[in-house]
């Protein structure tokens, strides 16, 4: 009766007494997870010597101003009649994964210093007409979006000004 009712018999193994060993074990477990394909993209930056891509670099289908990007959601299939129309309510019969892609356009803009910038921006930025960029030192600069003219259009506008 007075003995420990542990199934293994004998002395109960020490758990969590030596914190250093636990930390080493958890780091090793995390390293093994990083090799697993599902967790690799999340944990790779902690273990690889490769440089991680800076977030300021332009990527495909990511707005450089607002940061809008492709989102994952569901297409929901329903059946039934809505309660307000006299039915028992709509029921969800299926969900299939889908992607919500932002409307990203590549535009040529005249920057605040007068230089030409080629940017990937969402149509929301084009509608507002103001570009707000964060510089490396953390300061934000806003300037009006003036599209850079090209080709015959540019020659025509120069003739208009003269």
Describe this structure in words.
About 25% of the residues lie in helices and about 25% in strands. α1 packs across α2 (about 35-45). It has helices at about 20-35, 35-45, 125-130, 150-160, and strands spanning about 70-80, 90-100, 105-110, 115-120, 130-135, 140-145. By secondary structure, it is α+β, with helices and mostly antiparallel strands. The chain is built from four helices and six strands. The strands form three sheets. The protein has a two-stranded antiparallel ribbon with strand order 1-2. A two-stranded antiparallel sheet has the order 3-4. A two-stranded antiparallel ribbon has the order 5-6. The chain is flat and about 85 Å long. Mean pLDDT is about 75; it is low at about 50-55.
Tell me briefly what this model is.
Helix content is 27%, strand content 27%.
Q: Based on Cα principal axes, name the global outline.
A: flat
Q: Strands of the largest sheet, in order across it?
A: 1-2
The arrangement of helices and strands along the chain is HHEEEEHEEH
Give the amount of beta strand, in percent: 25-35%
Calculate Rg over CA atoms: 29 Å
Number of strands: 6
Give the overall average pLDDT: 77
Poorly predicted residue ranges:
50-55
Biggest sheet, open or closed, and with what strands and sense? 2 strands, antiparallel
Give the arrangement of secondary structure elements:
Elements: H1 19-35, H2 37-47, E1 71-79, E2 91-100, E3 104-110, E4 116-122, H3 123-128, E5 130-134, E6 140-144, H4 152-161
Antiparallel strand pairs: 1-2, 3-4, 5-6
Helix pairs in contact: 1-2
């Amino acid at each position: 009766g007075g003995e420990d009712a542990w199934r293994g018999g004998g002395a109960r193994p020490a758990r969590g007494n030596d914190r250093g060993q636990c930390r080493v074990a958890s780091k090793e477990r995390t390293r093994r997870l990083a090799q697993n394909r599902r967790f690799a993209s999340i944990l790779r930056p902690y273990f690889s010597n490769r440089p991680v891509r800076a977030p300021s670099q332009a990527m495909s289908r990511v707005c450089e101003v607002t940061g809008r990007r492709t989102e994952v959601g569901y297409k929901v299939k329903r059946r039934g009649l809505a309660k307000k129309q006299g039915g028992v309510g709509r029921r969800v019969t299926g969900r299939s994964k889908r992607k919500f892609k932002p409307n990203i356009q590549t535009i040529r803009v005249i920057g605040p210093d007068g230089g030409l910038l080629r940017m990937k921006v969402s149509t929301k930025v084009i509608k507002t007409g103001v570009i707000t960029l964060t510089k490396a030192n953390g300061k934000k600069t806003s300037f009006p979006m003036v599209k850079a003219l090209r080709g015959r259009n540019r020659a025509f506008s120069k003739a208009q000004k003269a």
